[in-house]
Amino acid sequence: xxxxxxxxxxxxxxxxxxxxxxxxxxxxxxxxxxxxxxxxxxxxxxxxxxxxxxxxxxxxxxxxxxxxxxxxxxxxxxxxxxxxxxxxxxxxxxxxxxxxxxxxxxxxxxxxxx
Length: 114
Known about the structure:
Elements: H1 3-26, E1 34-44, E2 49-54, E3 59-63, E4 69-71, E5 85-93, E6 96-104, H2 106-113
Parallel strand pairs: 3-6, 4-6
Antiparallel strand pairs: 1-2, 1-5, 2-3, 5-6
């Protein structure tokens, strides 16, 4: 096996372990975790809710809690603005979506397009 092939396998395994660990650490065993990516249409800091318009045009209202993990932000919704591009992992119970993890991908998307 060549070094480049080994590196690809190792990076793939690390990515899989990270995603799997993130999901299991953040949600209860009986919860199904969904992922949505989209642009922030509105942020309600007081009620801890985001309205995100996904790439397919659907608007999702997703709340966050003290257990929600944040990446690429200052945490707890700080620094999230209308127009930011987010990737959100969430659970849904009785029609209410609760964020497990939020990642601001605005900078990642911008860098990839450069």
